[in-house]
């Protein structure tokens, strides 16, 4: 008899998630099967559920790419992972491992990268997930499972961007204090940067300072103007439109405006940027090496996401809270 798993699926664009049962294959020689215990909810999941990314969504669409669980079964060739071990999976769950990008440690750019929950793959809002063991990462003992989950997408994304784009002592701004932003503050502060948190909500000030921000400013024209030329690196984690001219004005010469959120479309004043020789960059998730480094750093330096947990039966409430910007700061589903 074929074994099955039950996931939480959107059956059409934007529809509430409902239980959906599908076959559960035996793991291949290089694969592991994970019994999922927790999975973070990311705005990318909302885009997939709502069909905003075209053919990336395949209905019934099962999302979830901040997956934490325990190894249930291993393939015959898997070494280094054993049943019962706590592990996690991020945005992608496989790649060719032999192309130019894989050899550079940038598996996220592999032309044959296998996304965890898009393009027909069913993700972590489910009882079980099977994937290539090389893209399954052991979770350090110090990290509790609910806190570990958001590190696998949100954490890796901001960690990799900050690791590449900053140096200790730099003045780093984080624009948008949500799932990505509250982790970015912690990583940047622990990297030795001076962190300025920028948010439209004054009520996030106390939390932002506790997480490691030195300064906090609300996003008003007056405060933006008062902070002109104060930052070397501005990480935009917000997904909505902002005062981009004001954001550019915050940067010092040679500064970088880096997008981790995806507030499409964005209009930038290139003349104003040229005047200060600014750089625009983006933050994708990282490679396998970045993931290992991030997990070790988060464990050692106590970078813990602040999470709200939801039982699986309340998954639609969690997604609504995420849609309405009401989660402090990452929703994690208990499967
Ligand atoms: Zn994500
Ligand atoms: Zn490759």
Q: Using the alpha-carbon principal axes, give the shape.
A: globular
Number of strand segments:
18
If helices are DSSP runs of H or I spanning 4 or more residues, what is the number of helices?
11
Low-confidence stretches: none
Question: Can you describe what's shown?
Answer:
By secondary structure, the protein is an alpha/beta fold. It folds into two domains: 4-153 and 286-334, Quinone Oxidoreductase, Chain A, domain 1; 155-282, NAD(P)-binding Rossmann-like Domain (Rossmann fold), CATH 3.40.50.720. 26% of the residues lie in helices and 28% in strands. The chain has helices spanning 43-50, 100-103, 145-148, 154-165, 179-190, 205-211, 221-226, 244-250, 270-275, 288-300, 315-323, and strands at residues 4-10, 18-23, 31-41, 61-62, 67-74, 86-89, 92-94, 114-115, 128-132, 137-138, 171-175, 194-199, 215-218, 231-236, 251-259, 279-282, 307-311, 330-334. β12, α6 and β13 form a beta-alpha-beta unit. It is globular and about 65 Å long. The model has no long low-confidence stretch (mean pLDDT 96). The structure holds zinc ion (2 copies). This is Enoyl reductase (ER) domain-containing protein.
């Amino acid at each position: 008899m074929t074994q099955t798993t039950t996931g939480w699926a959107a059956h059409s664009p934007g529809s509430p998630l409902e239980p959906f049962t599908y076959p559960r294959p035996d793991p291949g020689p290089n694969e592991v099967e994970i019994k999922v215990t927790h999975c973070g909810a990311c705005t990318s999941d909302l885009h997939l559920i709502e069909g905003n990314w075209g053919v990336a969504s395949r209905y019934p669409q099962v999302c979830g790419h901040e997956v934490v669980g325990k190894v249930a079964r291993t393939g015959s060739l898997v070494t280094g992972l054993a049943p019962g071990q706590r592990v996690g999976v991020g945005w992608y769950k496989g790649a060719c491992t032999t192309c130019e990008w894989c050899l550079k440690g940038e598996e996220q750019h592999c032309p044959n990268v296998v996304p965890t929950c898009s393009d027909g793959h069913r993700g972590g809002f489910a009882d079980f997930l099977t994937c290539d063991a090389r893209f399954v990462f052991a979770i350090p003992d110090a990290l509790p499972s609910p806190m570990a989950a958001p590190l696998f997408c949100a954490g890796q994304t901001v960690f990799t961007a900050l690791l590449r784009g900053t140096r200790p002592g730099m003045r780093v701004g984080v624009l948008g204090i949500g799932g990505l932003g509250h982790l970015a503050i912690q990583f940047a502060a622990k990297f030795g940067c001076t962190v300025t948190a920028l948010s439209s909500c004054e009520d996030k000030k106390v939390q932002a300072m506790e997480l490691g921000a030195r300064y906090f400013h609300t996003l008003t024209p007056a405060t933006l103007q008062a902070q002109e030329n104060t930052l070397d690196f501005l990480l935009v984690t917000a997904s909505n439109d902002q005062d981009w001219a004001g954001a550019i004005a915050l940067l010092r010469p040679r500064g970088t405006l880096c997008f981790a959120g995806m507030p499409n479309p964005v209009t930038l004043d290139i003349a104003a940027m040229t005047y200060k020789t600014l750089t625009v960059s983006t933050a994708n998730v990282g490679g396998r090496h970045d993931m290992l480094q991030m997990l070790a750093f988060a464990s050692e330096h106590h970078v813990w996401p602040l999470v709200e947990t939801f039982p699986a039966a309340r998954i639609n409430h969690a997604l609504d809270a995420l849609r309405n910007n009401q989660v402090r700061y990452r929703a994690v589903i208990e499967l």
